[in-house]
Specification:
268 residues, alpha/beta, Rossmann fold, six-stranded mixed sheet, disordered N terminus
């Protein structure tokens, strides 16, 4: 049941500034399920200070209804941002993204800094843009790639991407920082984190746990107990459910998109 922890490196804000300074355009990758929580106001401010155009990319758009992705795109556009949505895993939206990069570029060829929080799919977007796997990806927070040093990756004759060895410092609320910022295996309180995550998911989609696991209960502890029992995750002596392992599974399933969840901008 144990997994070897995998680490990621958070960039310093000085490094973030340097990579943005080296680029003509900033591509900020967001999670389409919850764009606000994965949007860095500090990155936006650095790009503004340096006079660099910024594109917001709503990745994982295959995990939300299209009308929700469109609504988020329109909302960010009203706020003055250039915004597109795509799905790196399904190779959807990359052509529109390429066209958007060239449209906002001050010159061609253009150098693009790709930035994002853990698990927004930064490396997957780079892979999708290039058309074949060239940057490492990771299934869970704590392992978004072991890129050694900044890399320049050519997409076509007019687009050059800057891939960085780390991810931008995590912002957002406590749950967002813990879920995205700590390897699942190293969470000190996976039960508490999973419980908070279940509550948040159920607030947005009361049927999410039922759809994901066929569990009717809305109580986080009961949900974890059922999941643990189904997988035979029990303490040897007491035969009580091993809630910690069930909690880690729930967090991984959330990142893998197996639990239906998204934030509708119309409800904010």
């Amino acid at each position: 049941m144990s997994r070897k922890p995998r680490f990621f490196r958070l960039m310093s804000w000085g490094e973030v500034r340097r990579v943005i300074d080296s680029a003509d355009v900033v591509l900020h990758v967001l999670d389409a399920r919850d764009p606000v929580s994965t949007f860095s106001r500090r990155v936006a401010e650095i790009a503004r200070q340096q006079g660099k155009p910024m594109i917001l990319l709503l990745n994982k758009s295959d995990l939300v209804p299209r009308e929700v992705a469109e609504a988020w795109k329109n909302r960010f556009s009203r706020d003055g941002y250039t915004c597109v949505y795509a799905s790196a895993t399904r190779r959807q939206g990359t052509l529109i993204l390429r066209r958007t990069i060239k449209r906002v570029a001050p010159r061609l060829p253009v150098t693009v800094a790709v930035v994002g929080f853990p698990k927004t799919g930064k490396s997957s977007i780079i892979n999708a843009l290039k058309g074949r796997h060239s940057a490492p990806t990771s299934p869970y927070p704590g392992s978004p790639g072991y890129t050694r040093g900044f890399q320049f990756i050519r997409v076509d004759r007019d687009i050059l991407l800057i891939d960085t060895p780390g991810v931008i410092p995590i912002e957002g609320d406590q749950l967002e920082r813990v879920v995205r910022g700590t390897p699942v295996e190293l969470l000190e309180d996976p039960i508490g984190v999973a419980s908070m995550l279940v509550k948040r998911v159920l607030e947005r989609n009361p049927e999410a746990i039922k759809k994901a696991y066929g569990i009717e209960s809305k109580d986080p502890d009961e949900i974890l107990s059922i999941i643990a029992a189904r997988h035979g995750w029990l303490y040897k002596k007491t035969r009580e459910p091993l809630l910690e392992e069930a909690a880690r599974k729930v967090i991984r399933d959330f990142h893998d998109g197996l639990i239906p969840y998204f934030v509708d901008p119309g409800n904010l």
